[in-house]
Design goal:
CBS-domain, 4 helices, globular
């Protein structure tokens, strides 16, 4: 099965200039643990996850008004919209990550998470 059938198509993105506080609030509101970071042209520039934010904030001197770009991962592991589910599941596991953006060329079309894949195999 192709990953585009499982990915979340209704997903949130964050801009690199947004504050960490705003990113955390948006993630909490949507009950998610991370989101792709995109530029003004909606091109992927990073990925931000709550765990990275929390590690950043426990360092003395770091505040939640810092921009997302200070914390986001810039070397993002991604999936292609036409990849097979098992291939993407292996990549998630091999890289010890919980979710990744799904790209169609340079544009983020969705997000796939471990939970999405587990739900597919369980149901």
């Amino acid at each position: 099965m192709k990953i585009y059938k499982l990915m979340k198509k209704n997903f949130m993105t964050i801009r690199p200039e947004e504050t960490i506080e705003d990113a955390l609030q948006k993630m909490s509101d949507m009950k998610i643990n991370g989101a792709p970071v995109v530029d003004k042209d909606d091109k992927l520039v990073g990925m931000i996850v709550k765990a990275d934010i929390y590690r950043f904030l426990i360092t003395p001197g770091h505040i939640d008004q810092c921009p997302v770009e200070w914390v986001m991962s810039k070397d993002v592991i991604t999936a292609s919209i036409n990849e097979e589910v098992l291939t993407v599941a292996r990549r998630l596991r091999e890289n010890n990550i919980i979710a990744m953006p799904v790209l169609d060329g340079d544009i983020v079309r969705g997000v796939i998470s471990i939970e999405d894949i587990l739900d597919f195999y369980i149901n």
